[in-house]
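During the second year of the project, the team shifted from modelling isolated chains to modelling whole assemblies. The rationale, set out in the original proposal, was that interfaces cannot be judged from single-chain predictions alone. As a representative example for this report, we include one of the complexes processed in the last quarter. Its constituent sequences, exactly as entered into the pipeline, are reproduced here:
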Amino acid sequence: MNNVCRSSFAGILFVTLAATIAPSPALAIPPDPNNAALLYYQSFLTLAQLDDRARDRIAAVARGDKAPDKQAREDIGKCAGAIEFAEAAAKAPTCDWGVRYSRGFEALMPQMAQMRAMTFVLTADARILAADGNYKGALERCLMAGTFARHVGDDTLISYLVSISVRNLAYKCMQDVLGRSAGDAELLQWVKDELAASDIVTLSPTRSLKNEMEIVDDLLRRENVEKLARAIAGTDAKKAAVIVRKADEKLLERARGIYTERMSSALTIFSTPMPYEQAVAQLKQAANFDPNDPSAQVAQAFVPGLDKIFSQKTAIETHANAIKAGIEVLLSRAKSGQLPNALPSGLPKDAFSGKDFEYSKTKDSFSLRCPGKDLDVYRYEFKIKK
Amino acid sequence: MRSTEDMEKFVADAKPHVTTGASMDRRVLEDSFAAMDENRAAIKPSAAATVLASRAMRLAAAAAIIVAAGLLLTRGRHTPDRPPAPPQLADQTPTTMLSMMSLRMTYQHGGWDALDRQFRDTLDQFGLAASSLSMQQLLEGTNGS
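Output from the structure prediction step:
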């Protein structure tokens, strides 16, 4: 009996010890980062050291100005590790770049320049994949660049502008690749679904302008007058000294009042549905300052070109809608075997006018144009590969 | 589409509404401060003249000045009216160009084009990657080398 008890006890002890000492191998390995920024930073660290000419080559390929040649392929080949990190980052659920916002305008943002370089690398890689006939791979890269744009974020105005430039480059590439994959209905449907899913998170200048308002409100105070002088006068010590001497609390209080009033007014315009031209006119008015009022001039130094930001916001929304409308036209062609004679109804519209795009077709291409806009920048062409 | 037609260019062309350059902004600001100075200067003599118009007040003022001068002399050379030291400008280290302020003011004065140039300059200054050390170089100086 004693022997049985002893062996049972030993068995239980062994199992307990085994469970404690040897947990499953999966638990022993730390998980991959949840924060995409950590992976993007590794991606930036593994970007190849490229000289000016190589960077120009990559940018030209990314923009679609030049077909990818052997050298450009070699340049991008050197960035394979960086692209792999970016792929992993695109799958991470959150993205926090770790900017020290407590430092206000003096916070450093070294990642911005790297983001711009990474955009060219990703888009150039998409162009290479497309040139090799891998249209799905190319579109996946474009969608990945779209995710990257969302990860760049809209915490600051600079982030928002960079995110627009990323999306812009990705959309242009997507526009070209879609035309080439016009015959593949399954692929077109897949892109359509992916774009619809990615629309859940959208960026807006409102958030960045609100954040900037807080930073500027803090800056326009006597205790921060030296920072203010540096912001306005740059490296000119003499001018900075003039500002420090003369920007007293009364002047700064008035400047804060003017700045807050104009920015609040702009935020209201940004969030109120109204015709594009009306919004631009009101935003221009909000950026009109008395040149003889020192407080107004100080406020003006920190009010961005609000009408231009609104224009960029509308333009990127229009480009996104043109891509979605273009996919519908291509799906219609894939089903019927020919381009439709008129734009199918119910498609995303031109965000400038709120109207349908103007549709025109040729034998091997079609265009979507913003109504009432003559410049080619408002025309989105899809060239179909036979 | 031609390259000039693409949206990248459109974004690049969309400069801020503040069409004046940095120098112009500063000049306007300085002029405004100068105008304010003139106003202050114009106000001060007239107020002083009113006060000093009275003979009795003039005597009182002279006495006050003598007392004030005596007090200052007894306190040594540290005069409270000494002009303030010029502001400490941030050292113009290469990292300055990475600050939100630098990027933001670059955009304010030059739009997207200027900002993009600054990104490029940053890459020239710091390189695409922070390190191109080989594993062998990394291990130099350790026991494993």
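The mean pLDDT of chain A is 91. Chain A has three domains: 36-91+109-182, 208-304, 328-383.
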